[in-house]
Amino acid sequence: MSVPQSIHTTLNLLPQTVRMYVFLALAMSLAIAALMVPVSKVKADDGGLNLDGDMVQGGLIHGRLQAGSKLWLDGEPVAVGADGTFVFGVGRDAKESWTLTWQKADGVKGQQVLTIEPRQWKIERVDGLPPKTVTPPKSWLERRKKETGRVVSGRKGISDDKHWLSGFIWPASGRVSGVYGSQRILNGNPRSPHYGLDVAAPKGVPVVAPASGIVTLAAKDFLLEGGIVIIDHGMGVTSTLFHMDDVLVEEGQMVAAGDEIGKLGDKGRATGPHVDWRVNWYKVRLDPYLLVKDKPMPEKAE
Ligand SMILES: [Zn+2]
Protein backbone atom coordinates (compact mmCIF):
# COMPACT_ATOMS: atom_id res chain seq x y z
CA MET A 1 0.00 0.00 0.00
CA SER A 2 1.42 3.37 -0.88
CA VAL A 3 1.13 6.17 1.61
CA PRO A 4 1.09 9.84 0.55
CA GLN A 5 4.32 11.77 1.15
CA SER A 6 2.80 14.08 3.75
CA ILE A 7 1.79 11.10 5.89
CA HIS A 8 5.32 9.68 5.57
CA THR A 9 6.75 12.95 6.81
CA THR A 10 4.36 13.05 9.78
CA LEU A 11 5.05 9.43 10.63
CA ASN A 12 8.83 9.95 10.58
CA LEU A 13 8.47 12.51 13.35
CA LEU A 14 6.84 9.93 15.66
CA PRO A 15 8.58 7.22 17.76
CA GLN A 16 8.93 3.76 16.19
CA THR A 17 6.11 1.97 18.14
CA VAL A 18 3.62 4.80 17.76
CA ARG A 19 4.50 4.90 14.08
CA MET A 20 3.58 1.24 13.74
CA TYR A 21 0.20 1.69 15.46
CA VAL A 22 -0.63 4.69 13.30
CA PHE A 23 0.32 2.68 10.26
CA LEU A 24 -1.90 -0.22 11.29
CA ALA A 25 -4.83 2.07 12.09
CA LEU A 26 -4.44 3.79 8.74
CA ALA A 27 -4.29 0.48 6.87
CA MET A 28 -7.36 -0.82 8.70
CA SER A 29 -9.43 2.28 8.11
CA LEU A 30 -8.55 2.19 4.42
CA ALA A 31 -9.61 -1.46 4.27
CA ILE A 32 -12.91 -0.67 6.04
CA ALA A 33 -13.51 2.29 3.75
CA ALA A 34 -12.94 0.02 0.74
CA LEU A 35 -15.53 -2.43 2.08
CA MET A 36 -18.05 0.37 2.67
CA VAL A 37 -18.08 1.50 -0.98
CA PRO A 38 -21.44 0.21 -2.15
CA VAL A 39 -21.13 -2.64 -4.59
CA SER A 40 -23.47 -1.42 -7.27
CA LYS A 41 -24.52 -3.11 -10.45
CA VAL A 42 -25.67 0.28 -11.73
CA LYS A 43 -23.26 1.60 -14.30
CA ALA A 44 -22.79 5.32 -14.72
CA ASP A 45 -24.08 6.90 -17.90
CA ASP A 46 -21.09 8.30 -19.77
CA GLY A 47 -23.08 10.51 -22.14
CA GLY A 48 -24.74 13.72 -20.92
CA LEU A 49 -28.28 14.79 -21.71
CA ASN A 50 -28.93 16.62 -24.94
CA LEU A 51 -30.89 19.57 -23.67
CA ASP A 52 -32.68 22.04 -25.87
CA GLY A 53 -34.49 25.29 -25.09
CA ASP A 54 -33.52 28.43 -23.19
CA MET A 55 -31.27 27.82 -20.20
CA VAL A 56 -32.23 31.18 -18.71
CA GLN A 57 -34.61 32.33 -16.00
CA GLY A 58 -38.16 31.86 -17.34
CA GLY A 59 -36.98 29.30 -19.92
CA LEU A 60 -38.59 26.06 -21.11
CA ILE A 61 -36.08 23.24 -21.44
CA HIS A 62 -36.61 19.88 -23.09
CA GLY A 63 -34.75 16.80 -24.21
CA ARG A 64 -35.02 13.12 -24.79
CA LEU A 65 -33.97 10.02 -22.90
CA GLN A 66 -34.33 6.37 -23.81
CA ALA A 67 -37.94 5.20 -23.53
CA GLY A 68 -38.69 3.97 -20.04
CA SER A 69 -36.20 6.32 -18.36
CA LYS A 70 -36.81 8.33 -15.22
CA LEU A 71 -35.65 11.88 -14.58
CA TRP A 72 -35.27 14.12 -11.53
CA LEU A 73 -34.61 17.84 -11.35
CA ASP A 74 -32.91 18.60 -8.03
CA GLY A 75 -34.44 15.38 -6.69
CA GLU A 76 -37.98 16.21 -7.85
CA PRO A 77 -39.38 13.81 -10.45
CA VAL A 78 -39.94 15.18 -13.96
CA ALA A 79 -42.41 13.29 -16.19
CA VAL A 80 -40.82 11.41 -19.07
CA GLY A 81 -43.14 10.64 -22.01
CA ALA A 82 -43.59 7.16 -23.48
CA ASP A 83 -41.00 7.94 -26.16
CA GLY A 84 -38.50 9.39 -23.68
CA THR A 85 -39.35 13.08 -24.28
CA PHE A 86 -39.27 15.33 -21.24
CA VAL A 87 -39.84 19.02 -20.61
CA PHE A 88 -39.54 21.32 -17.64
CA GLY A 89 -39.36 25.02 -16.97
CA VAL A 90 -37.49 27.30 -14.59
CA GLY A 91 -39.04 30.40 -13.04
CA ARG A 92 -38.19 34.08 -13.06
CA ASP A 93 -36.13 33.82 -9.89
CA ALA A 94 -34.60 30.41 -10.63
CA LYS A 95 -31.21 29.75 -9.01
CA GLU A 96 -28.15 29.29 -11.19
CA SER A 97 -27.23 25.66 -10.60
CA TRP A 98 -29.52 22.61 -10.89
CA THR A 99 -28.79 18.90 -10.86
CA LEU A 100 -30.44 16.59 -13.36
CA THR A 101 -30.36 12.90 -12.50
CA TRP A 102 -31.69 10.15 -14.72
CA GLN A 103 -31.99 6.42 -14.76
CA LYS A 104 -32.48 4.44 -17.93
CA ALA A 105 -34.69 1.36 -18.13
CA ASP A 106 -31.57 -0.87 -17.85
CA GLY A 107 -30.66 0.81 -14.56
CA VAL A 108 -27.82 2.95 -15.94
CA LYS A 109 -27.72 6.23 -14.04
CA GLY A 110 -26.43 9.61 -15.07
CA GLN A 111 -26.10 13.08 -13.65
CA GLN A 112 -25.56 16.50 -15.13
CA VAL A 113 -25.34 20.00 -13.73
CA LEU A 114 -27.56 22.50 -15.50
CA THR A 115 -26.56 26.16 -15.38
CA ILE A 116 -29.31 28.77 -15.65
CA GLU A 117 -28.37 32.23 -16.78
CA PRO A 118 -29.78 35.05 -14.62
CA ARG A 119 -31.56 38.00 -16.23
CA GLN A 120 -32.21 41.66 -15.50
CA TRP A 121 -35.82 42.74 -14.98
CA LYS A 122 -37.28 46.09 -15.84
CA ILE A 123 -39.43 48.25 -13.61
CA GLU A 124 -42.89 49.02 -14.99
CA ARG A 125 -45.17 51.69 -13.62
CA VAL A 126 -48.86 51.37 -14.34
CA ASP A 127 -51.07 54.24 -13.19
CA GLY A 128 -54.73 55.05 -13.59
CA LEU A 129 -56.03 51.54 -12.89
CA PRO A 130 -59.51 51.34 -11.36
CA PRO A 131 -58.65 51.19 -7.59
CA LYS A 132 -60.91 48.18 -6.94
CA THR A 133 -58.88 46.09 -9.42
CA VAL A 134 -55.61 46.93 -7.64
CA THR A 135 -56.97 46.20 -4.18
CA PRO A 136 -60.03 44.04 -4.75
CA PRO A 137 -62.88 44.82 -2.32
CA LYS A 138 -63.95 42.17 0.23
CA SER A 139 -67.14 41.51 -1.72
CA TRP A 140 -64.97 40.10 -4.52
CA LEU A 141 -63.21 37.52 -2.37
CA GLU A 142 -65.72 34.67 -2.68
CA ARG A 143 -65.98 34.97 -6.43
CA ARG A 144 -62.26 35.49 -6.80
CA LYS A 145 -61.53 32.28 -4.88
CA LYS A 146 -63.64 30.27 -7.33
CA GLU A 147 -61.97 31.91 -10.31
CA THR A 148 -58.48 31.27 -8.97
CA GLY A 149 -59.46 27.64 -8.38
CA ARG A 150 -60.49 27.29 -12.00
CA VAL A 151 -57.20 28.79 -13.19
CA VAL A 152 -55.24 26.37 -10.98
CA SER A 153 -57.24 23.42 -12.39
CA GLY A 154 -56.73 24.62 -15.94
CA ARG A 155 -52.98 24.48 -15.42
CA LYS A 156 -52.87 20.99 -13.90
CA GLY A 157 -51.56 19.45 -17.10
CA ILE A 158 -54.01 16.76 -18.18
CA SER A 159 -52.62 15.96 -21.60
CA ASP A 160 -49.56 13.89 -22.57
CA ASP A 161 -49.32 15.63 -25.95
CA LYS A 162 -46.19 17.42 -27.08
CA HIS A 163 -47.72 20.41 -28.87
CA TRP A 164 -45.25 22.69 -27.06
CA LEU A 165 -42.51 21.06 -29.15
CA SER A 166 -43.80 22.62 -32.40
CA GLY A 167 -43.04 26.15 -31.21
CA PHE A 168 -45.35 29.07 -30.51
CA ILE A 169 -46.76 31.95 -32.54
CA TRP A 170 -47.91 35.41 -31.43
CA PRO A 171 -51.45 35.31 -30.00
CA ALA A 172 -52.31 38.60 -31.75
CA SER A 173 -50.63 41.06 -34.03
CA GLY A 174 -49.89 44.30 -32.27
CA ARG A 175 -47.14 45.90 -30.25
CA VAL A 176 -45.54 44.44 -27.15
CA SER A 177 -46.76 46.66 -24.31
CA GLY A 178 -45.59 44.59 -21.33
CA VAL A 179 -42.90 41.98 -20.82
CA TYR A 180 -42.37 38.99 -18.56
CA GLY A 181 -40.62 39.47 -15.27
CA SER A 182 -40.94 43.21 -14.89
CA GLN A 183 -41.42 44.57 -11.40
CA ARG A 184 -44.80 46.25 -11.35
CA ILE A 185 -45.81 49.37 -9.54
CA LEU A 186 -49.59 49.65 -9.77
CA ASN A 187 -51.05 53.06 -8.97
CA GLY A 188 -47.81 53.75 -7.05
CA ASN A 189 -47.79 50.49 -5.02
CA PRO A 190 -45.04 47.91 -5.66
CA ARG A 191 -46.62 44.57 -6.57
CA SER A 192 -45.55 41.10 -7.56
CA PRO A 193 -43.80 40.85 -10.93
CA HIS A 194 -45.72 40.72 -14.18
CA TYR A 195 -45.56 37.25 -15.67
CA GLY A 196 -47.30 37.90 -18.95
CA LEU A 197 -46.35 39.11 -22.36
CA ASP A 198 -48.79 41.88 -23.28
CA VAL A 199 -49.66 42.52 -26.89
CA ALA A 200 -51.64 45.72 -27.43
CA ALA A 201 -53.93 46.04 -30.44
CA PRO A 202 -57.32 47.56 -31.27
CA LYS A 203 -60.39 46.03 -29.60
CA GLY A 204 -61.92 43.19 -31.53
CA VAL A 205 -58.86 41.87 -33.37
CA PRO A 206 -58.64 38.07 -33.25
CA VAL A 207 -56.73 36.39 -30.44
CA VAL A 208 -55.38 33.05 -31.64
CA ALA A 209 -54.04 29.92 -29.98
CA PRO A 210 -50.23 30.36 -29.76
CA ALA A 211 -49.83 26.56 -30.04
CA SER A 212 -52.19 23.59 -30.38
CA GLY A 213 -53.81 21.96 -27.40
CA ILE A 214 -56.95 21.31 -25.44
CA VAL A 215 -58.96 24.15 -23.87
CA THR A 216 -59.04 23.57 -20.12
CA LEU A 217 -60.62 26.90 -19.15
CA ALA A 218 -62.89 29.22 -21.11
CA ALA A 219 -64.71 32.01 -19.28
CA LYS A 220 -66.01 35.37 -20.45
CA ASP A 221 -66.03 37.49 -17.35
CA PHE A 222 -63.40 36.90 -14.66
CA LEU A 223 -62.91 39.83 -12.28
CA LEU A 224 -59.27 40.56 -13.07
CA GLU A 225 -58.87 38.74 -16.36
CA GLY A 226 -62.13 39.43 -18.20
CA GLY A 227 -62.39 36.87 -21.00
CA ILE A 228 -59.88 34.12 -20.25
CA VAL A 229 -58.78 30.92 -22.02
CA ILE A 230 -56.27 28.29 -20.87
CA ILE A 231 -54.84 25.88 -23.45
CA ASP A 232 -53.08 22.70 -22.33
CA HIS A 233 -50.19 22.04 -24.77
CA GLY A 234 -49.20 18.81 -23.04
CA MET A 235 -46.81 17.60 -20.34
CA GLY A 236 -47.69 20.44 -17.99
CA VAL A 237 -47.14 23.27 -20.48
CA THR A 238 -50.10 25.64 -20.68
CA SER A 239 -50.91 29.04 -22.18
CA THR A 240 -53.27 31.45 -20.43
CA LEU A 241 -54.68 34.34 -22.46
CA PHE A 242 -56.90 37.05 -21.04
CA HIS A 243 -58.50 40.52 -21.03
CA MET A 244 -60.52 39.32 -24.01
CA ASP A 245 -63.87 41.00 -24.77
CA ASP A 246 -65.25 37.75 -26.10
CA VAL A 247 -64.30 34.08 -25.88
CA LEU A 248 -65.10 31.83 -28.84
CA VAL A 249 -64.02 28.39 -27.58
CA GLU A 250 -65.34 25.92 -25.03
CA GLU A 251 -63.69 23.81 -22.38
CA GLY A 252 -62.66 20.40 -23.71
CA GLN A 253 -62.29 21.69 -27.27
CA MET A 254 -59.12 20.98 -29.27
CA VAL A 255 -57.58 24.03 -30.91
CA ALA A 256 -54.78 24.22 -33.45
CA ALA A 257 -52.09 26.90 -33.42
CA GLY A 258 -53.56 29.96 -35.14
CA ASP A 259 -57.22 29.13 -34.43
CA GLU A 260 -59.19 32.13 -33.21
CA ILE A 261 -60.08 31.71 -29.54
CA GLY A 262 -61.48 35.15 -28.76
CA LYS A 263 -61.62 38.88 -29.43
CA LEU A 264 -58.94 41.16 -28.03
CA GLY A 265 -60.28 43.58 -25.44
CA ASP A 266 -59.76 45.45 -22.18
CA LYS A 267 -61.88 43.47 -19.74
CA GLY A 268 -60.66 42.98 -16.16
CA ARG A 269 -57.63 44.82 -14.79
CA ALA A 270 -56.44 46.59 -17.92
CA THR A 271 -55.82 50.19 -18.90
CA GLY A 272 -56.33 49.58 -22.59
CA PRO A 273 -57.05 46.81 -25.08
CA HIS A 274 -54.40 44.10 -25.03
CA VAL A 275 -54.02 40.37 -24.62
CA ASP A 276 -51.98 39.13 -21.67
CA TRP A 277 -50.35 35.81 -22.58
CA ARG A 278 -48.83 33.60 -19.91
CA VAL A 279 -47.05 30.30 -20.20
CA ASN A 280 -46.71 27.84 -17.35
CA TRP A 281 -45.01 24.52 -16.73
CA TYR A 282 -47.44 23.37 -14.07
CA LYS A 283 -47.14 26.17 -11.47
CA VAL A 284 -43.84 27.52 -12.78
CA ARG A 285 -44.33 30.74 -14.72
CA LEU A 286 -42.28 31.02 -17.91
CA ASP A 287 -41.44 33.76 -20.38
CA PRO A 288 -43.70 33.40 -23.47
CA TYR A 289 -41.43 35.62 -25.54
CA LEU A 290 -38.62 33.05 -25.42
CA LEU A 291 -40.95 30.49 -27.02
CA VAL A 292 -42.02 32.47 -30.09
CA LYS A 293 -40.28 30.94 -33.10
CA ASP A 294 -40.25 34.00 -35.32
CA LYS A 295 -40.12 37.26 -33.48
CA PRO A 296 -41.19 39.95 -35.94
CA MET A 297 -42.58 42.22 -33.24
CA PRO A 298 -40.31 44.42 -31.14
CA GLU A 299 -39.41 43.03 -27.72
CA LYS A 300 -40.41 46.20 -25.95
CA ALA A 301 -42.87 48.97 -26.54
CA GLU A 302 -41.92 52.69 -26.64
ZN1 LIG B 1 -50.41 41.92 -18.62
Short description:
With 302 residues, the protein is of the alpha+beta class. The chain has helices at 5-12, 16-36, 131-134, 141-154, 288-291; strands at residues 51-53, 60-64, 70-73, 76-78, 85-89, 97-103, 109-115, 123-126, 175-178, 183-186, 189-190, 197-200, 206-208, 213-222, 226-234, 237-244, 246-247, 254-255, 260-263, 274-281, 284-286. The chain has 3 domains: 5-36, no CATH class; 51-115, Immunoglobulin-like; 123-291, Glucose Permease (Domain IIA).
Tags for this model:
302 residues, alpha+beta, 3 domains, 17% helix, 33% strand, binds zinc ion
Q: In angstroms, what is the radius of gyration? A: 27 Å
Major β-sheet profile: 8 strands, antiparallel
* Percent strand: 25-35%
Please identify, by name, the CATH architecture of the largest domain.
Distorted Sandwich
Identify the CATH class of the largest domain. Mainly Beta
Small-molecule binders here are: zinc ion
In DSSP terms (H or I, runs of 4 or more residues), the helix count works out at 5
Distance N to C terminus: 72 Å
Oligomer: single chain
**Backbone structural class:** alpha+beta
Overall tally of structural domains? 3
Helix content: 10-25%
The CATH H-level superfamily of the largest domain is: Glucose Permease (Domain IIA)
Q: List segments where confidence is low: pLDDT < 50 over at least 5 consecutive residues.
A: 1-14, 33-42
SSE string, helices as H and strands as E: HHEEEEEEEEHHEEEEEEEEEEEEEH
User: What is the overall shape?
Assistant: globular
Number of strands: 21
Report the CATH topology name of the largest domain: Glucose Permease (Domain IIA)
